[in-house]
């Protein structure tokens, strides 16, 4: 096995009645899977292809509040437009939205606690 160091970048969504994911951000390199840099393009693709369709199949989609931290890929203009289109500006907690995620917030979010 060797001393191979593995770093995973994963996205997981939680609601009170649904778990969406987990989705790994990785590509295929010459020696197998490699972790990819998370950017606005792959975030938007993940939301469009997997997250939003999964939420649309849920009965609670109309009351879902989408919460994410203020990482730069999360607040890129194309991603903001996609989120606003599906959740409206007032059901999103994130930087650069009316309900702002506090910078360097010490509060735990569900992923900090459960994962």
Describe this structure in words.
This protein is globular. Helix content is 29%, strand content 20%. It has helices spanning 40-56, 77-87, 110-114, and strands at 10-14, 19-24, 26-29, 32-35, 66-67, 92-93. Strand 3 and strand 4 form a beta hairpin. It has 115 residues and is of the alpha+beta class. It has one domain. Helix 1 (40-56) runs parallel beside helix 2 (77-87). Strands 1-2 form a two-stranded antiparallel ribbon. The protein has a two-stranded antiparallel ribbon with strand order 3-4.
Largest sheet: 2 strands, antiparallel
Quaternary status: single chain
Strand order, largest beta sheet: 1-2
Find the count of extended strands (DSSP E, 2+ residues).
Answer: 6
Unreliable runs: 1-7
Q: Bin the strand percentage.
A: 15-25%
Supply the number of structural domains.
1
Categorize the overall geometry: globular
Radius of gyration: 15 Å
Instruction: Give me the secondary-structure category.
Output: alpha+beta
| Helical stretch tally | 3
Helical content class: 25-40%
Please give the alpha-carbon distance between the first and last residues: 26 Å
Order of helices and strands: EEEEHEHEH
Instruction: Please tell me the overall pLDDT.
Output: 79
SSE arrangement:
Layout: E1 10-14, E2 19-24, E3 26-29, E4 32-35, H1 40-56, E5 66-67, H2 77-87, E6 92-93, H3 110-114
Parallel strand pairs: 5-6
Antiparallel strand pairs: 1-2, 3-4
Organism: Araneus ventricosus
InterPro entries: RNaseH_sf (IPR036397)
Protein name: Tc1-like transposase DDE domain-containing protein
